[in-house]
Design goal:
This protein is an all-alpha fold and about 800 residues long. It has 34 helices and three strands. Pathway: Protein modification; protein ubiquitination.
Length: about 800
């Protein structure tokens, strides 16, 4: 019998997944492993786990890393059949001979292959279950399965050497086996301390934790010693091992799939560029050897693209198989419930009872949460209009609850980029992004956690993402805030959570002011970069179409110019996408929320930013922004100007704070600018007559305030040193002392600083607005001194007016 089993293994090892004999070999092992005699005895199952190659020697496994457990053990080849092109090229070539096959052909072939996969997975599951059922073989089988994960643990890393590990198909099949073994397990039955137990089979040492240091983890684990007398239940082990198997198998595969998509995109772009270069070379009589070299490069690139496309079709056959995705969603739904149990969440509201991160949640490896996010991002990225077909309906409430839990308890998670993934998912579920209304977005909106915490949590995250500690934090924040803006604009327009925005603006003024400051900073930077980029694009486009200038350039210079143009086009497209979203957010919020935008530390900055962009759009150099195919960059100057005009009118209140700030803008404002803007808006019908009339009234008001200011300019240059701001050296109006450095500054100066950094600017110690020490006596002295100066000024003017000329 042993020889029969060895021969059967050899047959399977040498058989491709599309070989009709494969199913016979699997059926044979399925039958042999299920044979029962004398009651419940399974002699062949017992024999299998005692074969010499059931589990290869430790040295072989360690030397060969993870690939040895697939290639050297008895059960490895039975779990190895693979559709992935990198594992078996014959399937890709046979099923997808042309990388440019039609969608219909591809889908037909994929459907047949998925039917084959379902049959193989069913047989693999039955074989493993046959070896797990008897108590005599369960431990051996579970050890083999956990060894297969342990020896391939580095698959959980971003970069790893695939040649040392089990192949992708083996790990994916292992994921499916664990998914189906875990299907009957109720998360309520799962032990919460397994990861800290000496019986734990997962390799979690050194893994990044959700919110815990190694030192605190060690102390926590030591406190638990003596609580693990009993071995964990099979349900507990299976539940945790399934999370690990998905991490190393399914999730690792979708990350590789995303990398392949980027390769295909880069190849496609290179082919288009090579094709253009070749046509240009032929048209301009370049040397034949140069043309032949370009032709060879183009041919090689097309061949590589075809190969990558076939590999993509194979990966999609597996990773976009609805049966698999629904199984994954069911497990992750259960895992979400388990994680919220560890976080001490109320089962109805999903609000944690703890103010700090509960330890059982904090010390979990980060991948338990991140894999859920990566799975959902994969779903919304490829099934945005058909999420319901791939996510199990019963699992969705748990997935939605966990998504909101992470966003609304972001302080529980140390890694802000992990939280940002859940924000991105929520953004993709939004009808503004997905293009259609869906029940999942509706479910999120009516969730208790969304109604009580979501707006505040997203505002906090919008503010805090300014600094993450990553080297790429400056640019990362823009894409994260883009996603938050999509959510905010949708919630605002629908009106469902609009009262929450108003509540935050009125009840949490410091936070909302920080939020508006970040918004203004982003809008200022993004618009300036986008408009400067458009000017450069115009220059390079002009060079490209000017044959006289272009022909004087060398081939290298022409290629360099083309590459530079492509770079600026990508940058402009990105900056405009982000800028337009920020402008839209500001436009929507200012329709009803005024006060945070009119605070002294904000209003001058906002007015100056709007004025500067008005100069760009309506000033004498606005023609420099005219480029070919502006819609390809998302460049809609009329729409942008319409939004900016509307923001001006939204903030024009009766107290004239905004109008006064515009009048105080010495850098960009001029009466001529506003007149030119009105003429342009009227000529092109950019705004409604009502809005234009409001803007004209604001223009006249600002013009009057500027004239009054110039006539009543009082010189405070001789102010005593103790009346001047230590930081800005300007006259103070509301002096405060900083408790740490004992420095005295104006309140508006330090508040402006605190909006960007909550530190004392003189010693970098932590500082908040509540820490500021008012100086009422100094404030009164300054007011009295200013009153004296004003009286002297008016007396002097009256004397001058009374003196005959």
């Amino acid at each position: 019998m042993s020889q029969l089993l060895y021969d059967l293994r050899s047959k399977v090892r040498d058989t491709s997944i599309d070989d009709k004999n494969l199913m016979d070999y699997l059926l044979c092992l399925e039958y042999l492993s299920s044979v029962v005699v004398q009651g419940n005895k399974r002699p062949i199952a017992n024999l299998i786990v005692r074969l010499s190659n059931w589990s290869s020697s430790t040295s072989d496994l360690d030397n060969g890393r993870g690939k040895a457990i697939e290639r050297l053990t008895f059960l490895g080849p039975f779990l190895a059949p693979s559709l992935f092109a990198d594992d078996d090229t014959s399937v890709a070539i046979h099923s997808f001979p042309n990388g440019e096959s039609s969608d219909t052909e591809v889908q037909a072939n994929q459907q047949g292959l998925r039917f084959l996969l379902d049959m193989i997975w069913a047989k693999q599951l039955t074989i493993v279950k046959n070896l797990l059922v008897p108590m005599a073989t369960r431990s051996h089988t579970l050890s083999f399965l956990s060894d297969a994960l342990r020896l391939n643990a580095i698959r959980g890393q971003i970069h790893f050497e695939e040649g040392l590990l089990a192949r992708e198909g083996f790990m994916l099949n292992l994921s499916v086996v664990f998914l189906r073994l875990c299907a009957p397990v109720n998360q309520v039955q799962v032990g919460t301390l397994y990861l800290f137990s000496p019986h734990c089979r997962l390799l979690v040492e050194g893994k990044t934790r959700i919110d815990g240091s190694e030192q605190s983890l060690t102390a926590f684990t030591n406190d638990l010693s003596g609580r693990f007398e009993n071995a964990p239940s099979f349900s507990t082990e299976c539940f945790y091992l399934t999370a690990w198997a998905l991490h190393l198998g399914f999730v690792s595969s979708i990350r590789k799939y995303r990398r392949r998509q980027r390769v295909i995109s880069d190849l496609d772009r290179s082919i288009r560029k090579l094709d253009q270069t070749l046509k240009h070379a032929v048209a301009n009589g370049y040397p034949e050897d140069h043309i032949h070299r370009l032709e060879r490069m183009l041919k090689q690139a097309k061949q590589e693209l075809s190969c990558q496309q076939r590999a993509r079709f194979c990966s999609e056959t597996i990773l976009m198989h609805v049966n698999l995705l629904q199984s994954v969603s069911r497990y992750y739904g259960s895992l979400c419930q388990f994680l919220m149990r560890l976080a001490e969440c109320d089962p109805v509201t999903c609000v944690s009872a703890s103010q700090t991160t509960p330890k059982l949640f904090a010390f979990l490896p980060e991948f338990f949460v991140e894999d859920i996010a990566d799975f959902l991002l994969f779903i919304v990225g490829h099934f945005s209009s058909a999420v319901g077909s791939v996510i199990d309906a019963q699992s969705f409430p748990a997935l939605a609850s966990f998504l909101l839990f992470v966003i609304c308890h972001s302080s529980f998670i140390r890694n802000p980029y992990l939280v940002s993934k859940f924000v991105e998912i929520l953004s993709f579920w939004n009808p503004m992004r997905s293009g259609s209304r869906n029940s999942y977005n509706d479910l999120v909106k009516v969730h208790p956690l969304a109604n009580t915490h979501l707006v505040n949590a997203l505002i906090q995250f919008y503010v805090n993402i300014e600094s993450t500690g990553a080297s790429s934090e400056f640019y990362d924040k823009f894409s994260i805030r883009f996603n938050i803006s999509v959510i905010f604009i949708s919630l605002w327009k629908e009106g469902f959570l609009k009262p929450r925005f108003l509540q935050e603006a009125n009840g949490n003024p410091m936070l909302f002011t920080k939020f508006t400051n970040r918004m203004i900073n982003d809008m200022s930077f993004l618009l300036e970069e986008a408009l400067d980029g458009l000017k450069k694009v115009k220059e390079l486009q002009a060079l490209e179409t000017d044959n006289n200038r272009s022909n004087r350039l060398t081939r290298q210079q022409q290629m360099s110019s083309a590459n530079e143009l492509a770079t600026y086009e990508r940058q402009v497209r990105s900056y405009l996408t982000l800028a337009n979203q920020t402008v839209n957010l500001l436009f929507n919020l200012t329709t009803e929320i005024k006060e945070p935008f009119l605070r002294p530390e904000i209003v001058r900055k906002l007015a100056a930013m709007l004025d500067f962009n008005l100069v760009q759009l309506c000033g004498p150099r606005c023609k420099n922004l005219k480029v070919r195919n502006p819609e390809s960059y998302g460049w809609e100057p009329k729409r942008l100007l319409s939004r900016i005009i509307a923001i001006y009118t939204h903030l024009d209140t009766d107290d004239d704070r905004f109008a006064t700030s515009i009048a105080d803008d010495e850098r960009s404002y001029s009466p001529e600018l506003f007149t030119a803007t009105q003429e342009l808006v009227a000529r092109h019908g950019i705004q409604s007559p009502e809005k234009l009339a409001q803007f004209s009234a604001l223009s006249e008001k600002v013009k009057r305030l500027r004239a009054e200011k110039s006539q009543a300019e009082i010189n405070y240059g001789d102010a005593p040193a103790e009346f001047c701001d230590t930081l800005m050296n300007t006259l103070m109006s509301d002096p405060v002392m900083l408790p740490g450095s004992r420095s005295i500054v104006d309140r508006s100066t330090i508040i402006m600083h605190l909006l960007n950094s909550e530190t004392d600017p003189f010693n970098r110690q932590p500082l908040s607005e509540a820490d500021l020490i008012p100086l009422p006596e100094l404030k009164q002295q300054i007011a009295m001194w200013k009153k004296t100066k004003e009286d002297e000024f008016h007396t002097s003017r009256q004397t001058d007016e009374a003196t005959p000329q």
